[in-house]
Design a protein that fits this description.
single chain, Rossmann fold, six-stranded mixed sheet, two-stranded antiparallel sheet, 8 strands, globular
Length: 218
């Protein structure tokens, strides 16, 4: 089995670098266009389970990608609760907490890495219980924890997995060992540069080009 991991499309706050946890904001027009580009790739797969965060940016991405009819909302996939840091940029946070790192320090008034790891472990267990492929629609930090926990790292291991908006990643196995097959596959230039670039990631027989001109990672 494989787990297709989809981070939601661009929002106004993802553009400005603001931490978006419980704030429920929609996709930008650009984010919607990129979400629609996922449809042809995901349509090539029969998913036994589709789970989606309850936040509208994830649900909208799931709908535009063509899987909303199969989707089950799972609150364990909601983004990290940033507490007092909700809506702040990393620069603003570092003014009050120099050297702060979310995967080590968590968020005051919000969640610790261990708390996020507990709910992500439930998502992983639910996914592994399925006989077939799974699709997950969620958010940047929580999906980075997912990648870490999938391969047996602690939740803080998510710091090693950079993840942009409107991306597709695939988790699976090397023999019986949990592995990362594809990570941070970008749809940014799909159609416009696929032929010219001649490189990228193939998912379901379609080409996902390498990412370029990506926004600053939180």
């Amino acid at each position: 089995m494989e787990v297709f991991v989809i981070r939601h499309g661009e929002t106004v706050w993802s553009l400005t670098g603001q931490h978006t946890g419980t704030t429920d904001i929609p996709l930008t027009d650009h984010g919607r266009r990129l979400a629609e580009r996922m449809r042809s790739i995901l349509a090539a797969h029969a998913f036994e389970l589709v789970l989606c965060s309850p936040m509208q940016r994830a649900r909208e991405t799931c709908e535009l990608a063509g899987l909303s009819d199969k989707a089950v909302v799972d609150s364990d996939l909601v983004e990290w609760n940033y507490g007092e840091y909700e809506g702040l940029t990393p620069q603003q946070i570092h003014k009050v907490a120099p050297g702060w790192l979310i995967f080590r320090d968590g968020c005051p008034g919000g969640e610790t890495p261990e708390q996020v790891g507990v709910r992500i472990d439930r998502v992983i267990a639910r996914s592994r219980a399925v006989d077939g492929d799974v699709a997950l629609f969620a958010h940047g930090h929580v999906l980075r924890v997912l990648a870490a926990r999938w391969i047996g790292l602690p939740p803080g291991g998510g710091e090693h997995f950079l993840l942009e908006t409107s991306t597709l990643s695939v988790l699976g196995y090397y023999r019986d060992v949990p592995a990362v097959r594809i990570w941070n596959g970008s749809f940014t230039d799909l159609g416009a540069h696929t032929g010219a670039r001649g490189s990228g990631t193939k998912v379901g027989g379609s080409q996902v080009p390498d990412s370029t001109q990506l926004p600053v990672e939180l």
